[in-house]
Design a protein that fits this description.
This protein is α+β, with helices and mostly antiparallel strands. The chain has two domains: 110 residues, Jelly Rolls; 81 residues, Arc Repressor Mutant, subunit A, CATH 1.10.10. It has five helices and nine strands. The chain is globular and about 55 Å long. It starts with 9 loop residues before the first strand and ends with a helix.
């Protein structure tokens, strides 16, 4: 992907499967997501993958840690992003609106990390799966006569690696939520939340 000119942010379209950066790369850019979904992953020394976050519109990804990226980032669903040079955020004359978005995105990332830790601590697989869907509901849920609709462009394996479960367990959890009347499945990538209240109860179970 071509680098933006010095001092300028540019809009780019990213294709599904495109890799923005690898773990350990020097962090030259931060990506502000306008549309689509990105995936952040890390790998253990044994080669096991852990999905640590999904990036949605309004998020920024690529915040450096001592100048380097601490995760790999690729595109799950075709995305439009604004590419900012990391050095632009050190400029005291930075646009105030951009500064506000940067601070909001950084705080949101911290909050999402905390929510993820709590999610991983859920006692049962169905509670973890419910918490995953409940977290997406206010962000990407679209109203419909049947209930809020959530698009899930990521695979069940992605969700499993995010929740610390097996793919088979995630599939069973979705089936269980459907049997309880909490959700309706329209193919693998569309979930209709038929009972948001019950979903939140399961998500908040201790």
């Amino acid at each position: 992907m071509p680098a933006p000119p010095e001092g300028r942010a540019v809009k780019r379209h990213l294709a599904e499967g495109q890799v923005l950066f690898h773990e350990g790369d020097h962090a030259h850019f931060i990506y502000e997501i306008l549309s689509g979904v990105l995936r952040l992953t890390r790998y253990t020394e044994a080669g096991r993958r852990q999905v640590i976050a999904f990036g949605y519109p309004g998020d920024m990804v690529g915040f450096p840690d001592h100048g380097r990226h601490r995760a790999e980032c690729d595109v799950v669903a075709p995305a439009d992003v604004v590419v900012h040079r990391t050095g632009a955020f050190d400029n005291p004359a930075m646009d105030l609106a951009l500064h506000g978005r940067l601070v909001s995105a950084a705080l949101a990332e911290i909050s999402c990390m905390q929510d993820h830790f709590v999610m991983l601590g859920r006692k049962s697989a169905i509670e973890k799966t419910a918490a995953f869907l409940a977290a997406l509901l206010p962000r990407v849920g679209v109203g419909s006569p049947s209930g809020p609709v959530i698009s899930l462009p990521m695979s069940r394996a992605d969700i499993a690696d995010f929740l610390g479960l097996t793919t088979e367990t995630v599939c069973r959890s979705f089936s269980r939520l459907r049997a309880l009347g909490v959700i309706q499945l329209r193919g693998a990538q569309t979930v209709v939340v038929r009972d948001p209240g019950r979903l939140l109860e399961l998500a908040e179970s201790d």
